[in-house]
Amino acid sequence: MSVNTFNQSSRELHPGGSLSGEIQVPGDKSISHRALLFGSIAEGLTTIDGLLPSEDPLSTASCLRSMGVQISQIVSGQKIQINGVGLDGLKEPEEILNCGNSGTTMRLLMGLLVGKENRHFVLTGDKSLRSRPMERVGHPLKLMGAEIKGRSKGNLAPLSIYGRKLHGAVIGTPVASAQVKSAILLAALTASGKTTVIEPKHSRDHSERMLKAFGANLQVGGEMGRHITVSPGSILKGQSIVVPGDISSAAFWLIAGSFIPGSEITINNVGLNPTRTGILEVMKMMGAKFEVFNKRDVTGEPVGDIKVFYSHGLKAFTIDAEIIPRLVDEVPILSVAACFCDGKSQIKDASELRVKETDRLAVMARQLSSMGADIKETPDGLTIQGGNKLKGAKLDSETDHRIAMSLAIAALLAEGNSTLSRSNASNVSYPNFWEHFELLRN
Predict the structure, then answer these.
(1) Closest C-alpha among 248, 249, 252, 218 to residue 233
(2) What is the pLDDT of residue 224?
C-alpha cells in the first residue's frame, strides 16, 4: 500500500463498551511467506490453505511469479496452488523484483537467489524498506561465497545479486533472527557441503519445520536446539500446507480482552508454535485470565483455540533477551498493556524493534506520550509506569501495521475520542482488522 493511500485513511475511534464474541484471525504471515517460497522451489504441486492474503505475502508471490513460478490467484478463503520449478528452476527476471514493504520478502529472497548461478537479480522495495538494514543477512551469505551489492556498502536496497556457486559454512548469528537464519538455510540447500547455523537464542522455527516437511536434509541439535545443519542434495517435494492463524494478530485481542471491562473473546485456530508464544508467557506474568483448548497439530505446527477474559489489577512485567525472540512482533501491543498495569514495566534487549517497518520503540513512545502515558525510551527498549489514565489524542500509525492496531486498542482504553491517521496500515498483516474491531464491540 502506498503512503498516499495510508494518508487518506484517517479513522475516528471512540472508547467505551466491552469486547465479546468469537473470531478467527488471518493466517500466520511468517508461515505464509515460507509456504510460497518453499513451494516454488519444490518439485510438483504445492497447495496452501489459509494463506494470509495481505500485502507482504502478495509481494513474495509477485516476485516469484516474475521468476517463472506459476502461482494461482491469491483470494481470501481459497486454496492457493503452486507449480514448483525445483531448486534450480528460477529464471532470471526481466524486471526488478519489488518487495514492497516486506522485509521478510527481501531477506528470504536474498538467501534463495545468491546460489542461482550465472543469473542476475535486483531487489528493491518502498521507501521504508529501502531504509532497512540488509547487511545482517548479506554478511553471512557472503561467508558462503555470495555476491551482493547495494547502497551503503551493500546494506541498503536496491540490491544487486549475481548468483554464484556457494560453499557450506558454520555461521554464528549475532542476534536470534528467524529472517537471517532462514536466508542462510535457503542458501544452504544448493551449496557444496554442509552448512550449520548457530543461534544465540531459539528464534521462531517455521523454516526448519517446513523445510523438513518438504524433504530437506535438515538436523536440529545443540543446547535448546540452536544448531541447525543443512546437507545439500535432497530434492524438495510439493506438499499440502495448512496455515494456522497468526498469534501476532491474535495478540491485539488477547490484550484488549484482558484490559477492557466485561470482555470475553474466543480466538479460534491460533498457531501455538513454542517459538512464538511469548505473549502468553507475559500474560501469565501479568495475571491475565485466559485458557488454551482444542490443541492439535496441523501440518507440523501446534494449533489451538484461546479464550481470554477481562482481569482486574494486572501486574507490571519485565521482558528481556530471554523472551524477546518469542514475542518481538508483540512489543507494540505490550507497551500499550504496560500503561494499564500496576507498577513499572520494562522492555529490554529489544533494539531489533528499531529496524522494523518503523523504529517501533520510538514510534510507540511518541504516540503513547501524546496520550499522556509515562513512557521513556532507552537505547534497547522502553520503561513504562502504569496507572496514568490515557487521554484521547490525534494518533498516527506512521505507516506501520502493528503500530496502527496497537494504537486502536489504546484508543479503546483511553478517556475521550481519538483520531488515527493512516489506519489502513493494518492491511499489511491483518486485512480485516477493522471489521473484527467492529464485530467484537458491544
Answers:
(1) 218
(2) 56
pLDDT band at 175 (very low <50, low <70, confident <90, very high): confident
Read off the pLDDT band of 226 (50, 70, 90): confident
Q: What is the pTM of this model?
A: 0.89
How much helix, strand and coil, in percent to the nearest 5, is found in the chain?
Answer: 35, 25, 35
Say which CATH topology domain 3-27+244-440 has: UDP-n-acetylglucosamine1-carboxyvinyl-transferase; Chain (3.65.10)
Cβ neighbours of residue 115 closer than 8 Å, sequence gap 6 or more? 146, 163, 164, 165, 166, 187, 189, 190, 191
Which of 246, 329, 396, 400 is labelled catalytic?
A: 329
d(C-alpha 226, C-alpha 224), whole Å? 6
In the annotation, is 380 catalytic? no
| Pair 215, 237: CB distance under 8 Å | yes
Amino acid 104: pLDDT = 95
Domain coordinates in residue numbering, the chain: 3-27+244-440, 29-242
All cell numbers assigned to 353: 524493534
Q: Matching CATH topology for 3-27+244-440 and 29-242?
A: yes
Within 10 Å of residue 24's Cβ, how many Cβ atoms? 17
Asked: is 29-242 a CATH 3.40.50.720 domain? The reply is: no
Set of cell numbers at residue 213 = 516437511
